[in-house]
Amino acid sequence: MQRLKAFAILAAAALGAPMPLHAADAPRTNVVIIYADDLGYGDLACYGHPKFKTPHLDRMAQEGAKLTSFHSTCPYCAPARASLMTGRYPFRNGMAAGNINPQTPDRGLPPEEVTLGEAFQQAGYRTSCIGKWHLGHQPKFHPTRNGFDEYLGILYSNDMRPVELFESEGKIEYPVIQETLTERYTQRAERFIERNHEPRGCPSVGIRSATRDDSRSSSGPPQEHRGIRAVRVDDSQ
């Protein structure tokens, strides 16, 4: 199986009503969604970057669908993730107040919102979320209470303190060795996919690629740092 890597968190795809998933006789396929933070439109070679080489991602674009007009509902983390997870604008899913950090413990995706993970679970899928969550870090907001059977990751951004690694709802590492997170996230994603290949599972995977310390070691402006992360993602495919 080809190795899967990417960065940030898998949040999910926009969801209306997944009618085909509920049809008893409809074929079901495995689903992997990769959600990349801080990746600019032009940071990949397939979107015209003249310097950074991303042949594996380019191949995915060539063999799949390459979208050239897509807009996020918000320019920062939590509200945009909430929209991707629920298919609803932030002012409708309760996440329009702003970003989430350790100093806002009561803020998170309202439990009454229907997430993509919950929709897949109702259709008989196994679900996993790996990487950055950033939709609330109190227990009621955790991924395992919002549609995901498994979780491994950091509940908010890795530049917010304290940085703690969670598995399901338990803290398993502090301080976090961020230099090895990419490999650990990737290994967990691969195990989940292999374990749930038959019967079909719904692996929702988002994997962080480079630490901020990694990016600081590179020379050049911030846009080059984003491109370096993109290349590291591509190299691991």
Secondary structure layout:
Layout: H1 19-22, H2 55-63, H3 77-86, H4 90-93, H5 116-122, E1 127-130, E2 150-154, E3 165-167, E4 170-173, H6 181-195, E5 202-205, H7 212-216, H8 222-235
Parallel strand pairs: 1-2, 1-5
Antiparallel strand pairs: 2-3, 3-4
List keywords for this structure.
237 residues, alpha/beta, 8 helices, disordered N terminus
Radius of gyration: 17 Å
Number of strands: 5
Beta fraction of the residues? 5-15%
Could you tell me how far the N terminus lies from the C terminus, measured between alpha carbons in angstroms?
Answer: 10 Å
Low-confidence stretches are: 1-23, 204-220
- The dominant shape is globular
The assigned structural class equals: alpha/beta
Largest sheet: 5 strands, mixed
**Number of helical stretches of at least 4 residues:** 8
Q: Give the spatial strand order of the biggest sheet.
A: 4-3-2-1-5
Order of helices and strands: HHHHHEEEEHEHH
> What percent of residues adopt helix (DSSP H or I)?
25-40%
Mean pLDDT: 78
